[in-house]
Design goal:
Number of helices: 7
Order of helices and strands: HHHHHHH
Largest sheet: none
Number of strands: 0
Shape: globular
Distance between the termini: 40 Å
Strand content: under 5%
Structural class: mainly alpha
Helix content: 55-70%
Length: 143
């Protein structure tokens, strides 16, 4: 049991060390608390299987084009729906960095991709319109 707790703890620390924006602060101020029953239960039931131990990648992949990714997450970012816990604002670079890691997508220049989305000739915001339609259909099914 202690070995499983240690594995869970080391797994989480390794992800923090790889992807946290304030690595130095985390290394100097590590939380050595033992995981809760809920955290251990999640680990035991395989809920952390999307974050394989020893891998710097998740097992989740974005399936749409890069412009759809930008369209969705620029909207989330600009709506101030996500905030940093330890400071007033998360930067756009930090926000997209963690999302690109999480969804295994590489976007070389976010601003140029965003500009391409804004300069569309045919239809503006096609992915957001599709998402609204999908949600409307979901609601209409009464699930």
């Amino acid at each position: 049991m202690l070995e499983l707790l240690e594995q869970l703890y080391l797994h989480r620390i390794s992800h923090l060390n790889k992807y946290a924006t304030r690595q130095v602060a985390l290394q100097n101020n590590q939380d050595l608390s033992i995981p809760t029953k809920q955290e251990l239960s999640a680990y035991m039931s395989g809920q952390l299987s999307l974050f394989p131990k020893g891998s710097g990648m998740t097992l989740i992949q974005w399936q749409r084009d890069k412009v759809a990714f930008i369209e969705l997450f620029v909207s989330v970012y600009e709506s101030n729906s996500v905030k940093a816990i330890d400071r007033p604002k998360i930067t756009k670079k930090e926000f997209f960095g963690i999302l690109m890691w999480f969804f295994n997508i590489q976007i070389g220049n976010i601003d140029s991709t965003l500009q391409a989305a804004k300069n569309r000739k045919i239809e503006q915001k096609p992915y957001l319109k599709e998402l609204m339609e999908v949600f409307d259909n979901y609601c209409a099914r009464g699930l």
